[in-house]
Specification:
443 residues, Rossmann fold, 7-stranded parallel β-sheet, 17 helices, 13 strands, 40% helix, globular
Length: 443
């Protein structure tokens, strides 16, 4: 509709809609704030930090109260533009009331909730009331690209203005490191309380068994055609059977499974026509993964929501895999971190998920054909060529980096990097925030 609408019509519609929502919010603000109502928000879907905190909070209510599932659903809300798939629902999620962003019911929930938990900035027409508490978990984790006041020369003035407005409303920030504590003070201008609990979305990576990473792996693999799945299992078995080490060694077991390589590039503002394709690949990326890590591999693609419309047009910015039957579209799933927990290898470009995947020791490979252009559009906190990951500027280099992957050298670089910036992750961040919410409500 945006493409065929007359020039200026979209902006006119957006301004009108925001005006209506602002009036609705003011109207609903005349209702009493329900101290024990909690609203979680993530504009991109049922994922990121709010998802894991919401589910932990539901478990806390089940454990410490006699509330029924329906009673919990009257107090716990999740606002998003993309509802969860059936495959993403579990016992905790079934106790949450899901609302679509900017609907009347969502605006009413925000206007009357005692606690807000978000990972993005609130829209300019949302204004926190005096007796509400706003917890910001931020969606960037440990960032690569510069943020807000650190990037004010790159970002639109209206974005900076709304960001500062949102910061002024925020009561608490959740951080994962001393590095981010300082960053939030400087880049966000935040002067209130910061709790260094870790990132809730890291919990399923650190404790994959506790958060059913195996079940997510099965859900992803179930999207393969049955014939392809059976063929890959058979080929993995034959490969393992032929190994000299015999049928019961650890290495042989690795060759018996179907592994997942996650390809998760981020969004870039670079015009598609400025991107050129890298050198032609001398061999298959999937073949390289199988040669280096064993077993059979499939690729799950998971793009940034803003990048979806650009993937088919930006010539060299995004990897193209030839083995189409072994490519699983992971974009329907709202939560990237559930997919990361189920995956064995990550290929990305500038996404901060590189830090989170490597924190738990999984191999991370960077593929970026447009480093200079990307840096020019935003700026980076770390020098890209000094990041502790194998970096490829074209597909041939990526192929070679996978083949030459040095596990021990990689581990040493990761440990030094995270120790230097003081990252704090325990796998219990969501529980800590849930307990914090309970303390706020009990005051």
């Amino acid at each position: 509709m945006k493409k065929i609408a007359p020039e200026g019509a979209v902006e006119t519609y957006r301004s009108l809609r925001e005006s209506i929502i602002e009036k609705e919010f003011k109207l609903f603000s005349s209702f009493k704030v329900e101290k024990d109502k909690v609203v979680f928000c993530n504009v991109w879907g049922y994922g990121d930090n709010p998802k894991w905190i919401a589910e932990s909070y539901v478990r806390l209510l089940k454990r410490t109260t006699s509330m029924s599932n329906s009673a919990i659903a009257d107090k716990v809300y999740f606002i998003t533009s993309k509802p969860p798939l059936k495959e993403e629902m579990n016992e905790e999620a079934s106790c949450i009331t899901f609302l679509k962003t900017n609907t009347k019911s969502a605006i009413y929930a925000l206007a009357t909730a005692g606690v807000w938990v978000d990972c993005n900035r609130k829209e300019s027409y949302i204004q926190k009331r005096r007796n509400q508490t706003y917890i910001q978990t931020w969606h960037g984790g440990l960032p690569l690209k510069r943020l807000e006041l650190d990037a004010k020369d790159y970002l639109p003035p209206e974005y900076i203005h709304n960001a500062l407005r949102d910061t002024a409303m925020t009561d608490i920030y959740i951080s994962n490191s001393e590095y981010c504590n300082e960053l939030y003070r400087r880049a966000f201008g935040f002067k209130k309380r910061i709790f260094c609990f870790g990132s809730a979305r890291m919990d399923p990576l650190i404790r994959p068994v506790r958060f059913s990473a195996g079940a997510m792996r099965e859900k992803l693999l179930s999207r393969l055609p049955e014939s392809v799945f059976r063929r890959l299992l058979n080929e993995a078995y034959i490969k393992a059977y032929k190994m000299k080490e015999g049928p019961r060694t650890g290495e042989q077991k690795d060759h018996l499974r179907i592994n997942i390589a996650l390809y998760a590039p981020t969004y870039r503002d670079i015009p598609s026509e400025t991107l050129e394709r890298g050198n032609e690949l001398g061999g298959s990326i999937i073949n390289a993964l199988e040669e280096r890590f064993g077993g059979k591999f499939v690729v799950v693609t998971r793009f940034h929501p803003l990048a979806m419309s650009r993937v088919k047009h930006a010539n060299g910015a995004y990897l193209q895999f030839d083995e189409k039957e072994r490519i699983i579209d992971g974009n329907e799933f709202s939560d990237l971190y559930s997919i990361m927990a189920a995956s064995d290898v990550l290929i990305t470009d500038y996404s901060n998920c590189m830090f989170e995947m490597s924190y738990v020791g999984k191999p991370v490979f960077l593929y970026a054909t447009d480093v200079e252009q990307y840096d020019d559009t935003r700026g980076m906190y770390f020098k890209y060529d000094e990041l502790p990951f194998p970096i490829a500027h074209n597909e041939r280099e990526l192929y070679e980096n996978i083949i030459d992957y040095d596990k021990e050298g990689y581990k040493t670089r990761q440990q030094a990097f995270f120790e230097d910036i003081g990252v704090t992750e325990s796998g219990k961040a969501a529980d800590k925030v849930a307990n914090l919410i309970a303390r706020i409500i009990d005051k």
